[in-house]
Amino acid sequence: MIQHDVLIIGSGAAGLTAALVLAERCKVLVLAKGALDGGSTAWAQGGIAAVLDEGDTFEDHIRDTMIAGGGLNRRETVEFVVEHAPEAIRRLAEIGVPFNAEAGALHLTREGGHSHRRIVHVDDATGFAVQKALIAAAKAHPNITLKPDMVVVDLVTDRHRGDGKPGNRVWGVYALDQSTGRVGCFSARATILATGGAGRTYLFSTAPRGATGDGIAMAWRAGARVSNMEFMQFHPTCLYNLEVKNFLITEAVRGEGGHLKLPPGVPGGGERFMPRFDPREELAPRDIVARAIDHEIKRLGLDYVHLDISHKDPEFVRGHFPNIYERLLGLGIDMTKEPIPVVPAQHYTCGGVLIDLNGRTDLPGLYAVGECSESGLHGANRLASNSLLECFVFGDAAARDILARWDQFEAPPKLRAWDESRVTDSDEEVVIKQNWTELRRFMWNYVGIVRTNKRLERAAHRIKLLRNEVAEYYQHFRVSADLIELRNLVDTASLIIKSARARRESRGLHFNQDYPETQPAARDTILVPDR
Ligand code: FAD
Ligand code: SIN
Prior knowledge:
With 531 residues, this protein is an alpha/beta fold.
């Protein structure tokens, strides 16, 4: 058993923010399942929302967040995050994030659902710069140990105590070391899940391969409540390309004047369609824009719609979107001269492990922060660029809560080692691949942008079969990274379907044709595990 003061699962924006605060007073171990920069953080483009402009106010940011969130947000959380945003940006600048500035002030861009310019950014690759600065700061800290290529299998709780004492206290994790193939037990006084989202439950997603809902599934299996999993966000503008499947075209392209148009060759070809759907046009919140695109694609039998910013000065376009410009040029698209083919794709997991304002979950000793958590900030639909912000504010809050309560965190007891009796390697890797593809495909078709009772029922039936098959497989074979992820995907998809079936209305990202109305009272979908 390897013991540390605090264990953090995940080296993205949420995990490393927490690590840097904790390291002031304790020894921290950070585990990541692949490379340290392998999560969504490094892929973030648009930026981070914060009230920094004189004409802007906290109240406006709060209102925009709650309008986008379909009124389901918890106001206390929204206030907490919005009011801590300027401080979070200051801390990032302090560790060297080179935010774009103009005339001595940070440059602020605009995205859908925001009533003001309030997005700080580093060109069109904000996440890359943030991830780099966080890793550099963490590496430089003597109290932080970073361990990549460690795939956490499950949480270790009282159930795994050597002395048999009952309870649901979390004491750490079992993790597969990819370099040795062995599973070790890592214990700590407190454990923080910062494992990111579950985008890869869907066939098309902007998220990296590792976004398989691991933290959500592990917390659920250990007995924590999970909330609002039906609110899966689809980003309106993912590049449509037969080779490159998950390249995002930032919302800031629309923020800086880009238009959504129907492609030529159909009635209304070359014309903008968003004015027909919403008075905020291309800058309506994401759920509305994604649904409008989906509607036009289905109505006209299209493969994609066009996102066009070629009416702007080429220098302006290249200056604002240097990375996207280069990437598209490499694929034969010059965005200064021609429109970009785009489709909606899964982008963000609004639901997750239920937490309070300190990042505490239901389980003693366990915290959750960032995209794997549900803090009440996003409600039924996340406002653009509020996600990284949530990671910084809650990473900090959870770490401070642990430090403030340090005396209450006992040292871990003796815990059972991983059961090595499953020694057989699977000779049927094809089963894992097949199940993974099947799951992602039916989630896309049946639990996507537009849902119906019938489709959700079909998905529920399929996930039941798949869960049984994966559970049996898991019991018989030695764990591998792929099997661990598939097990988590199946559990997470099951939570999404269960939540979607429980909501008998349409709100924000959850649109069910059989219940098109929004109920007067906004209620969270809180799933409670059998304990
Ligand atoms: P991640 O950064 O995803 O990190 C997850 C970590 O957990 C990784 O280190 C991973 O290895 C680790 N992990 C997961 N499972 C395990 C396991 N089983 N064992 C060990 N480690 C594990 N948000 C914004 O606010 N602004 C933007 O401009 C923006 N742009 C985006 C663009 C794209 C293409 C995408 C996909 C997302 C974007 N988002 C944006 C959303 C935002 O990037 C994410 O919500 C945020 O980065 C999540 O950070 P995180 O720390 O919670 O998780
Ligand atoms: C984008 O740049 O469009 C993504 C922003 C976000 O997900 O908040």
